[in-house]
Amino acid sequence: MNKIGLIIRREYLHRVRKKSFILLTLLTPLLMAAMLFVPLWLASFKGDTINIAIIDQTGKYAPLFKDTDHYKFHDANQSLEEYRADENKELFAVLNISDNLLENPQAATLYSEKQIPGDLSRLVNQILTKQIESDKLASFQIPDLENIIKESRVNFNIQTIKWGKDGTESSSSAAIAHILGILSTLAIYMFIMMYGSMVMQSVTEEKTSRIVEIMVSSVRPFDLMIGKIIGIGLVGITQICLWGILLSIFSGIGGLFIAGGMPVNEMQTTMAMQPDMMLPDELSWLTQLQSFNFGEILLYFILFFIGGYLLYASVFAAIGSAANAPEDSQQLMMPISILLIFALYAGIYGINNPDGPLAFWCSMIPFTSPIVMIMRIPYEIPLWQKLVSVILLYATSISLIWISAKIYRIGILMYGKKPQLKEIVKWITFK
C-alpha cells in the first residue's frame, strides 16, 4: 500500500503541476461562460439598417410592415426590373406582392442578390400570415369571430404534485428532473472519456519510452496500474471541482452584464418596488426544487461516477499496455468509444421514458449503467433497481481490474508485433 500511495502521489502531482493543466483549468470555464454570454452580449449591438422595398400591387399589405431596429421598409417607387438593374444597391431585398394572398398564396416573393437572412424571412412570414388568417376569418362573415377565437385561446399547464411518504404534498417538475438527468449524464460521460483515455495514453507513453521497465523492477505491475488509475482519477476530480467554482464565478459576472450592469442592490430595490414583475410561475421552480432529494442524487452520482471511471479506466489501462504505439491504442479504443456514445444516446433518449425497456436494461448493464442510471435517479426509481445496478457495476469493475492487471503485467513488457486476441487470453490465464 505504501508503494501505491507513492504512485498515486507521483501521478497526481506530476499532472496538476503542469502548465497545461493550470491553463486548461482556468480557460475551460472561461470559454464555457463566454459561449453562453458573449453571443447574447454581441446580439445587443445594433448593426447597419437593412433597407427593403415593397412592391404591393394590391395596396393592402405594404402598410402592415413597420420599421424595426434592424430592418427598414420602403414603399416601392420603381418596378421590379428597375430594382434589379439598379447599380446603386442601397436596397438589400425587394418584396413583390402581385395578388391577394388568401386566394393566391404564391403571389408573394422576396428577391435579393444575397442569401435572405432567417430572421427577415420569419418576420415577413409572420406579418403576412397574420393578415391572411384575419382575411380568412373575415370570409366566414361571422360577427366578431376574430375576438371570439382570440378569447378562446388558453395557455394551460398541468400542475404536478408529488406525494410524500408522510402524506405531505410538494410541487414537482419534469423539466427540472430532465435537466438534472442530462447534466449528470454528460458530466460522467465527459469524465470517463477524458480521464480514461488519459490513463491509456500514460501507459502507452511509459511503455514506448521503456521507462516502465525500470518502474516494474521496484513495484508490482498491479500496484503500478492501480496507483495510476487512482492518481489520474484524483486529478480529474480536482479539475472538475475547480471548474465548478470558476464557472460559478464567471457565470455570476456574466449575469451582471446580461442585467445591463445593474448592481445587485439596485436590482433588489427595483424588484421590491415592482413585485408584480416576478410572476408566481416564474418563482415556482424554487418550490419544485424542494421536491427533489438532492442528498440521494449526489450519493448515487458519486457511486456511479467512481464505479464508471474504475471500470473504463481499467479497460483503457489494459488497452494501453497491449498496444505498441499510440496509433494502435487509438484503434483498440474505438469499440469502447462507440459503447460510451451508445450509452450517452441511450441515456438521452431514455429520459423521456425512464421506466421503459431501453432505460431499464441499459441502467443494469455495467458498461452503460454509469451514464444511463444517473439519468433515471431524479425520477425516483425503485430502490432495488439502484442497488442491483450499483452491485453489478462494482462487481464488474473489480473483475475487470483483476483481468486488466493480468493483461497489464505482461503487456507492458511486450514489444514488437501487435498481440492477437488469443495471446491476450493467454496473458489473462497465465499464473
Give short descriptive properties of this protein:
431 residues, alpha/beta, 4-stranded mixed β-sheet, two-stranded antiparallel sheet
Instruction: Report low-confidence residues grouped into runs of 5 or more.
Output: 261-283
Shape: elongated
Distance between the termini: 22 Å
SSE-based structural type? alpha/beta
User: Counting H and I runs of at least 4 residues, what is the number of helices?
Assistant: 16
Q: Profile the largest sheet.
A: 4 strands, mixed
What share of residues are in beta strands?
Answer: 5-15%
User: Topology as H/E string?
Assistant: HHEEHEEHHEEHHHHHHHHHHH
**What's the β-strand tally?**
6
Strands across the major sheet, in which order?
Answer: 2-1-3-4
> How confident is the prediction overall: mean pLDDT?
79
Radius of gyration: 31 Å
Helix content: 55-70%
Walk me through what this model shows.
The relative contact order is 0.10. It is built from 16 helices and six strands. With 431 residues, it is an alpha/beta fold. The chain is elongated, with a radius of gyration of 31 Å. The strands form two sheets. Strands 2-1-3-4 form a four-stranded mixed sheet, with no helix packed on it. Strands 5-6 form a two-stranded antiparallel ribbon. The protein starts with a helix and ends with a helix. It has helices spanning 2-16, 19-43, 80-85, 118-139, 145-152, 174-208, 211-215, 221-258, 264-273, 280-289, 294-322, 326-350, 357-364, 369-376, 383-411, 421-429; strands at residues 50-56, 71-75, 93-97, 108-112, 161-163, 169-171.
